[in-house]
Design brief:
Distance between the termini: 63 Å
Strand content: 5-15%
CATH topology of the largest domain: Rossmann fold
Number of helices: 13
Order of helices and strands: HHHHHHHHHEHEHEHEEEEH
CATH architecture of the largest domain: 3-Layer(aba) Sandwich
CATH class of the largest domain: Alpha Beta
CATH superfamily of the largest domain: Glucose-6-phosphate isomerase like protein, domain 1
Largest sheet: 5 strands, parallel
Shape: globular
Number of domains: 2
Radius of gyration: 20 Å
Strand order of the largest sheet: 2-1-3-4-5
Oligomer: single chain
Structural class: alpha/beta
Number of strands: 7
Helix content: 55-70%
């Protein structure tokens, strides 16, 4: 496979994430799966050998090397240094890994224990890795909007309803954008530039939500996206997107960290709205 031409090789993880988002569709399918794994598990990439990483990613070590070279790195170790540099800014990564190693085997844990642990780790990762400035920027869009429209389906549905409930309680005019395609798309076309769409979608992502984002951005309507990956189809360079990843337990993913993020977004928007109202008096 030919290497993707890259005049500016990403040397920090914060640079690598948008680079992968931009070039994701240029990668072969196999390398796309590696890209998703790498962005979801930066600590695994940073702290393990290529053999261990490839086993967890479900690919061969040579595929990991191909992935690194496709970006423009000399080899896997060259790329790994980028992930290792990013881990230096994450509080206590080694203590977290040690705590995980000391946990009892899954079959010895109760269901409550398994899901509680997954929820705690998901929320801890949210706190450590989420840029608070990004939350504030997104909340400013909600606070300044005439109406906040909220859309999401499937696993995102509880988050949609909770965010709507909280915004309304905080005095922000919010509306659920619901319906079937193409009706819901027609509704999205009616949004105005002084309104905002909050789009929520998680893997495997819903086509309807992506279409709503496309329509709104094309019409100059700001979009705040809550999703689980930089490579998500609703995470764009021209919107305000927040990433949240939930730990799995035997294939079941909770919403603990996602609900926490939604609450933070709503409360911050409420604070911003209240400050604006006070300054106008």
């Amino acid at each position: 496979m030919q290497e993707i031409q890259n005049l500016s090789l990403p040397r920090t993880y914060s640079d690598l994430k948008p680079w992968l988002q931009e070039h994701y569709r240029d990668l072969p399918k196999r390398l796309q799966s590696v890209a998703v794994f790498a962005l979801h598990n930066p600590d695994v990439i940073a702290l393990n050998t290529v053999a261990v990483i490839s086993e967890q990613a479900g690919v061969t070590p040579s595929t990991m090397v191909r992935f690194a070279k496709s970006i423009g790195y000399k080899g896997f170790s060259d790329m790994q240094e980028v992930f290792q540099q990013s881990m230096r800014h994450v509080p206590q990564p080694y203590s977290e890994r040690l705590s995980s190693m000391q946990r009892p085997a899954v079959h010895e844990q109760s269901v409550l224990s398994q899901f509680s642990q997954a929820a705690m780790e998901s929320i801890s990762r949210l706190e450590q890795q989420t840029d608070e400035a990004a939350i504030k920027q997104a909340s400013l869009q909600l606070a300044g909007a005439r109406t906040v429209y909220i859309a999401g389906q499937g696993r995102a549905d509880p988050v949609v309803n909770y965010l709507h409930y909280t915004l309304v309680k905080l005095g922000i005019h919010a509306t659920l954008l619901q319906g079937t395609s193409p009706t819901i798309t027609d509704k999205a076309r009616m949004l105005r530039p002084d309104e905002v769409l909050v789009a929520i979608s998680f893997s495997p992502y819903t086509a309807n939500t992506k279409e709503l984002v496309d329509v709104c951005l094309a019409n100059g309507v700001n979009v705040v996206a809550i999703t689980d990956s930089t490579l998500s189809p609703i995470a764009r360079t021209d919107d305000y997107h927040l990433e949240v990843l939930e730990d799995e337990v035997n294939g079941f993913r909770g919403l603990s960290a996602t609900m926490c993020l939604a609450l933070c977004l709503a409360v911050e928007a409420g604070k911003q709205r209240a400050e604006r109202q006070e300054s106008s008096h």
